């Protein structure tokens, strides 16, 4: 059980939830959240947006029943929290690009705070949010609204590229990596439906070029070239 | 002194809480969260002779108070399992059950043989066991190759049970499908063929349609329904089977609370398995053990024998 | 222009929303809340030749996303129904379906005969009908006298279907039980025996135990499960049966939203029935008609024929 | 949809809920309440405690999931409300006794307001509540805590007796009626499990000496001597 510290509504669909929790985690890791009794049945995986010694923040987009309930939380409410789960982003040095599409920007605030030299690219379909906050953790924040954020980036300018966003965007990242024939290490963070979150159920298992991988424990962060998108 | 223990086919369980196949990996996955030796036991992910990639596309979807899965028996194959997990399973102090699946009669037979040989050798070499029981899964609804047919018709199932029984000296649990044409008849057949226990129910064949895409959500059309939604159906089936045979019964289907466990025991189950509830709360195992203990204390029940099968 | 209408066995329905037997009384009960003539149709409470008191004790209990009932076919008997409700049913402008149950083959036969004679006479005398179709319930799981057996085995069911078919010229819907040993075979039998349509599913046999009293909640041990919990199972069965026969199909089981209706139509149903959802929201009928219309507008679907059975 | 005006917690288990509603009703009638989306499945029958032209009050005891959710409602929340249902108490004149056991006191506040000459008897198992309010609508309010309120009453002193409470109490009322051989008309208000509330499902049908009756539409108020308790 964890207590809600605050739940800020950034717009009608996006919220930033802060909860009491001292379990921390690495950038790119996620928690399983449950803010309801019986419906929906399962907890929901949400990335760490930011964390301190005694609190974690989650940035979420309302897409269905579970996230709708997150949106309704008020300060003082309780929720169940398990984690941190997943491999998280690798420790990297050199020049890094962090590319978030839509709610896929969520893990990159904490990441930008930790990497020394990371440029942040944020792609929004309409109203952008949290841009000022991102500017406080990265000296280079590029925002695109309604276009394709990928077009503004050359992977070859970077040693490492990490992308998170809708599957279409991640496919485009893979294609771009191939097209640019870049030396940059390109990573993607996947979002598969999960049940257990701990590697026990194989609900999140997906095809990779080296065989099947579990997104929850082998990932969610993978080398882009290894993923087999269908 | 409250006694939670039970004995099934000569194997003694610390308590009646056993984690269900396919929801508990091979045990390791939950061992970081609590001491899994507290459990009565657990069943490993379903194994087949050959490694299996499982199904493509969506593997999981939620329904009202339930979930559907179409994992398609993804597993490393029996050989890899035995190689990779034996030492870990040997180190455990809880009942370890292998779940054996298969596409053909020959798969089942060869799989059982492999397990038998391995276990005999390991017991001889180390003086310690790694596997306590086999749970024979004739009912996985996700495998195209015919896994389902065995679970439906008594005569088809008979061949599998007989083949596996002939190949193993380990206590044999047969796991029944809710899709069986005649569940009582199926149970009686298993008893005749020398099964040591029965477990039920596996998931119920179900469907979900993505009306936007105008397609079934799952690659193979149907998928298996589990979770609280199916509990009343599972309980009825356990009660039915408990009245049809004298074999010990491990009941499951939607169990999430201690009260659910008690219901199954009262319906005639010797122990229970818990699947989907692990996903709802990953500490469900210890929570249930605590809950059942608390209930017994409160009701002045010393041993579950006092209430087992109390419902006529 | 969006067209919601459908035609089943020569009877035309304004829309595919039909209220299910046992959940809609004889229609009157909901007529104070909305104009029930807006509905595609409705099925009256199950009738038997003799009046029935139904079951004692608890008749209803909730489960996770479902409910169990053990009404036990309480009804005034066919004769009293015909006497009391005919004039009201004649006044209605929606498809009126009688649900015929029974304990013995002879009950069914005599019941069908009574309805047939009455309807012939009334049509002759007044020039207007009071009953459009018969739905034959071979599947009510609550009656001790054998009502269940008919729904399980194809051969037992055959006798009932044949007997009733011989006694009535009204379009005959046979309502299938999810407990049928072989659902596809059952459906094919009905087609052979001259049924005009099939409806499914009836409630699923289930159990609930009161652990404090150490007794089954229901007098007869088991009771019928309905509501959202069973929807994925019902949908699978409708899809299965739609692929086994060419008869029109009325699908049901857990439908509560317009999306649920669309799922059943895509699975192959010609129309749907709605039971438990009436209790969740007594305006479910008109809400669903509105919801389906809105979905069709949004998706540019002019007629449900465009999506019916679209899932292979 | 109706809006919650207030929800007063009288103790840890009992609440008094006021909602906007202009549908009114007679004493002894009930509404079906639903203050949740999907769980529990069904609405819950609750008697009218009091009503005005634009609001209704409900007095409820928390016994399970549904009433627990009623307890959690806050001003401004929405709930679904259907009714009024049931026959309600008959129109009576003469001397009337209204006997409530436990939460069975709920329908008698509104009833006492409407009857000219009604004595109110309230039986509580522990802490009493709302006694002052009852005193404002009846000149004679007798309270019993922990005992059997019935023992303090002689039915023969009244023209009409109406009782509501646990089944055990209603059985005792029936027995007392027979034992006293009184001329008073004795009524009981039954609480059967309900699904539809409108007479369609027969879930609430119970045995009466004159045959089966539906508690939701034929009742919930019946002549005591006609009920067949099992
Ligand atoms: C590792 C990981 C990290 C994530 N981090 C975030 C984050 O920081 N912020 C955020 O807003 N979202 C994040 N998501 C996506 C988020 O989990 C889903 O949007 C959410 O589960 C939807 O639940 P729902 O009940 O609102 O929607 P519904 O559509 O009602 O959910 C139905 C089912 O689909 C699953 N589901 C639906 N969409 C997704 C999805 N995109 N990914 C995984 N499962 C899904 C749900 O878990 C549920 O089982 C992450 C997903 C993963 C796997
Ligand atoms: C006509 C009528 C008027 C009522 N008036 C009031 C009132 O004014 N105040 C009040 O507190 N209670 C009243 N009740 C009882 C109230 O309906 C139940 O306490 C409530 O339904 C319990 O729901 P739950 O989810 O909290 O409990 P649960 O025990 O979780 O409910 C489980 C199931 O049992 C049913 N149930 C449980 N207890 C009862 C009961 N005593 N009567 C009917 N159904 C029950 C529920 O509807 C539900 O289906 C009335 C009941 C009836 C029939
Ligand atoms: C994700 C998942 C995977 C499963 N895999 C297997 C399996 O490999 N072998 C098997 O016999 N049963 C398998 N099952 C069925 C469960 O063991 C259990 O019989 C079923 O889920 C009902 O119990 P529950 O409602 O507690 O989950 C699986 C169930 C789930 C949810
Ligand atoms: C209270 C109740 C009474 C029922 N009575 C009958 C009946 O008399 N005859 C019948 O064929 N089906 C009866 N049914 C079954 C329904 O018609 C329907 O098949 C079933 O409830 C599944 O649909 P649902 O999930 O929409 O309720 C009854 C169901 C309920 C809940
Ligand atoms: S979510 Fe269960 S294995 Fe990944
Ligand atoms: S509650 Fe349905 S008939 Fe009374």
UniProtKB/TrEMBL annotation, chains A, D:
Residues annotated as domain FAD-binding FR-type: 1-91
Keywords, in A-Z order: 2Fe-2S, Electron transport, FAD, Flavoprotein, Iron, Iron-sulfur, Metal-binding, Transport
Keyword Iron-sulfur: yes
Gene3D superfamilies according to UniProt: Dihydroorotate dehydrogenase, electron transfer subunit, Nucleotide-binding domain of ferredoxin-NADP reductase (FNR) module, Translation factors
SUPFAM superfamilies according to UniProt: Ferredoxin reductase-like, C-terminal NADP-linked domain (SSF52343), Riboflavin synthase domain-like (SSF63380)
Pfam families linked: DHODB_Fe-S_bind (PF10418)
Cofactor(s) the protein needs: [2Fe-2S] cluster
PROSITE patterns linked to this entry: FAD_FR (PS51384)
Domain of life: Bacteria
PANTHER family in the cross-refs: DIHYDROOROTATE DEHYDROGENASE B (NAD(+)), ELECTRON TRANSFER SUBUNIT (PTHR43513), DIHYDROOROTATE DEHYDROGENASE B (NAD(+)), ELECTRON TRANSFER SUBUNIT-RELATED (PTHR43513:SF3)
Protein family per UniProt: Belongs to the PyrK family.
Protein name: Dihydroorotate dehydrogenase electron transfer subunit
Organism: Paenibacillus gallinarum
UniProtKB/TrEMBL annotation, chains B, C:
Binding annotation for FMN: 21, 45-46, 99, 137, 175, 201, 227, 253-254, 275-276
Catalytic residues in the record: 140
PROSITE patterns assigned to the protein according to its UniProt record, in alphabetical order: DHODEHASE_2
Keyword Oxidoreductase attached: yes
InterPro entries linked: Aldolase_TIM (IPR013785), DHO_dehydrogenase (IPR050074), DHOD_1B (IPR033888), Dihydroorotate_DH_1 (IPR024920), Dihydroorotate_DH_1_2 (IPR012135), Dihydroorotate_DH_cat (IPR005720), Dihydroorotate_DH_CS (IPR001295), Dihydroorotate_DH_I (IPR049622)
Cofactor binding note of this UniProt entry: Binds 1 FMN per subunit.
EC number(s) per entry: 1.3.-.-
GO molecular function: dihydroorotate dehydrogenase (NAD+) activity
Residues annotated as domain Dihydroorotate dehydrogenase catalytic: 4-293
SUPFAM superfamilies attached to this UniProt entry: FMN-linked oxidoreductases
Catalytic activity: (S)-dihydroorotate + A = orotate + AH2; (S)-dihydroorotate + NAD(+) = orotate + NADH + H(+)
Top-level taxon of the source organism: Bacteria
UniProt keywords, alphabetically: Cytoplasm, Flavoprotein, FMN, Oxidoreductase, Pyrimidine biosynthesis
CDD domains per record: DHOD_1B_like
Pathway it works in: Pyrimidine metabolism; UMP biosynthesis via de novo pathway; orotate from (S)-dihydroorotate (NAD(+) route): step 1/1
Cofactor section: FMN
Binding-site positions, substrate: 45, 69-73, 137, 202-203
Compartments, record wording: Cytoplasm
Subunit structure: Heterotetramer of 2 PyrK and 2 PyrD type B subunits.
Family per record: Belongs to the dihydroorotate dehydrogenase family. Type 1 subfamily.
HAMAP family per UniProt: DHO_dh_type1 (MF_00224)
Function: Catalyzes the conversion of dihydroorotate to orotate with NAD(+) as electron acceptor.
The protein's name in its UniProt record: Dihydroorotate dehydrogenase
UniProt source species: Paenibacillus gallinarum
